[in-house]
Amino acid sequence: MRWLSRFFRRRKQDAQLDSELRFHVEQQTAANIAAGMNADEARRRALAQFGGLEYIKEETRDARGTRFLESLLQDIRFALRTFRKSPGFTVIAVLTLAVGLAANTAIFSVIYGVLLEPLEYSNPGQLVALQLLVPQWTHKFPMVPLNPATYLAWSRQASSLAGIGVAETGETRNLTGAGEPTLLTTDAITSTLFDLLGVKPVLGRTFSPDADQPGHNHEAILTNTLWRIRFEGDPNINRHTIALDGSPYTVVGVLPPSFDFPTQHELVPIEGPTPSADIFVPEVFEKQDLAVDSGFGLATIARLKPGVGPAEATAELNVILDREFRALPSSFHPQTLMMPLRDIIVRSTKRGLWMLLAAVLALLLIICVNLANLVLMRATARQQEAAIRTALGASRSRLLRQTLAETLLLGLLGGALGLLLARWALWGLLAIAPTSLPRLHNIRLNGAVLGFTLGISVLAGILAGLLPAWRLAQASPQEALRSGGARNADSSTRLRAREFMVGLETALSAILLIAAGLLVASFAKLVKVPAGFTVDHILTVNLQLPEAEYTKTQQRGRFWREALAATSALPGVESSAVTNFLPLSGEINDDPVDLPGDTRPAAQRPFASYRHISPDYFKVLGIPLLNGRALTWADAGTGNVVISADTAKTCWPSVNPIGQRFDVDPSSKFSGFRVVGVVGDTRSIDVFQAPTPMIYRLEESGLTVSLILRTRLPATAVAAALHSAIWKIDPSVAIPSILSMGQILSESLAPRRFETLLTSLFAAAALLLACLGIYGVVSYSVVRRTREIGIRMALGAQKADVLQGVIGQGMRPVLLGLSAGIIGAVAFTRLMSSLLFEVKPLDPLTFLLVALILIGVVLLACYIPARRATRVDPVVALRHD
Amino acid sequence: MQQGTLYPALHRLENRGWLGAEWKDTDTGREAKFYSLTKKGRKHLEAEMASWEQMSNAVALILRTAE
Question: Which residue in A44, A322, A433, A870 is a FRET match for A846, CA 20 to 30 A apart?
Fold first, then answer.
């Protein structure tokens, strides 16, 4: 600490040292005069006896121990002075660094908020998501959510779990009794789930423990947003009664604003995206839900007991599973699949996000390389200065430190500016981010992100300065001083350093461009993939009938038939249909197909997705009829179904499926389903998956149904007419916003679009920067070789020869870099294959295109300075310095 | 030994706290810096002197036996 005070008092100490030494010299001088010398001689003798004054002062100052900090300050002041002297360089350097650092900060904020930060529940490390692994189904369902029987078995018997809870999320219920009827997204959860997560409501309490028992199911908990917007933040909301789908619920609590419950898709990745919850109710299991081998659809969260490891818990859960499923045929043996809760929530986005970080870091690396080249070129001009310093006694490490201080300062300045830009960059990023991105609300600029920015600013500064600093410190003083700063021919090592940088830049740009190219090709394929049905001119709206008023199936069937009749008669609407699940909704709804005479065990039987539709469904969506006939209203109450071509191929490969029966149950009155028609395949679940086998039944009794309209009019034009048509039949039906099929398709592609857009942006920026860097290097090299070029031309070289020479030299490292980049891409794109759709990671067309584009653009960057070289007048060049 | 070479050493010892310094008036009317040994410095001096004695005794012993 005395050291620190010495540092701050150093000017005073210098003055004191000065007077101390002067005192002694004067004393000695006085003694000399007394001994008989004259004044001048006396002083000279005294000084000689004393020793070199300046040297002594230096040594004493060194002994103070504050040398390092002092020289650092000196370096910083000097660096600032050089920045002031060359504002152009400083501005360009700081700006490019700032842009690169801002992009990195923004992307890292996303990565930290989504992937790295622990979940905001208490002790998140102990929370796990539980699913089942059914070996025979893994090709179709890599993981299977729980069913009520399994959950209850684990809940009652597992001693390694501190608690377990399930959720069925994303359902829509009609809210009445509080203003206008609205549809709310409702999550049904185990009553103890919030306590398990450690969530504390801001108002009221969590569910009472028996709230999820049949008959007690009347409590509801509001999300903060719903409470503020719909109930105006009423502090007396507790014990208020509302109705959901006609059933009464009492509000018992309000959740904190920061609370974020994962969606069904995040907890059960095989299911499609659903919106976040507005309201929570208890999940009740009725007697009929408790079959051991069906009803798999529950997202499950559990907390491990402190001290219990996942392996131990998994083993215990497996034992319980064995016991439960022992009674079933031996082929059905599910295993426990336990994953940390955070892992399963972010599972689908992990790859894409890390790839984006790699891309943006590569961009920053290119920026650093460009900066290093700039500094290197400036360093050559400052050779004389460095030589003088060395001659005056500067150590190599001091020179190195001084250059590094410059670039470090540039890095920090760039980082500071970058942080300011990052706020906008993040804002822009969140604007185009897919809404299905998990933990979207958690993304912000926080301490960890700032730490990251500081770290990479310092790293960038050091990286940019390393090579130039090393080169400068190696300068031999005599040579530089002798030439008086004249422009010598480049030493071969210096040239090689620049060429290495160019090669590195080219390699990185090539990798980025190839990655972007693959993503763009993949996205183009995705957008054009034949969905199997018309996407244009289709409008959809999800309608829900209030359960309390439509208790009988005939009432519901009548409503839908009236609605269809009314809507298809609307002006501009060609035809309308209904279905229980829209295509591309991510909804699976699979069941095994029981073929008569099929003796295979249940786990190996074919699966098909069921849909309930109205007769015009195929006509509205343009799905072709391949065999037999479509359904009509006359098929109501029968088991007549229409199947898709894939179902026909899977179940009846060698027989005409028309007339075939399946799911025949001799013990009941149900005589099974009968195939009356075959239609074309569609991508019903999402665009990425191949068409699944479909079985279509007639929609007669659904409460929640999607209405599909075929019309050339936009949603805004049809909305009013639609509203009045539906409300004329029943004014209490809530009508949410109308979406076009095109919008739904676009929304499902949002994550891929996000990655492709960003990577393309980075790749384009990388190409631009690399070209600018190469242009700078080649221009510089031309200027340095002006004399040599002049001599060559004087000796008879033609313009073409000069052109060839310059471009040749410029392109050599580029071609080497390109080869390295291609090899690197071959290694890295393998990691991207999960992000690509029907495009191979080693797609030769993409590689070829990228190579051609890169060579073409870089050739241009070399050509411009090369042309300038040909304009060199030999006479002027020979006189050139 | 030149007078001046003392000064870096003096300042080093002062920084370590083994020497104390104060500016006092001299008879010529100017101010000069006067150094004195501190308690810590005296302890170190005694330690250094002891180890110097030890070393010189050892060297003397070697030289004597070599004769």
Answer: A433
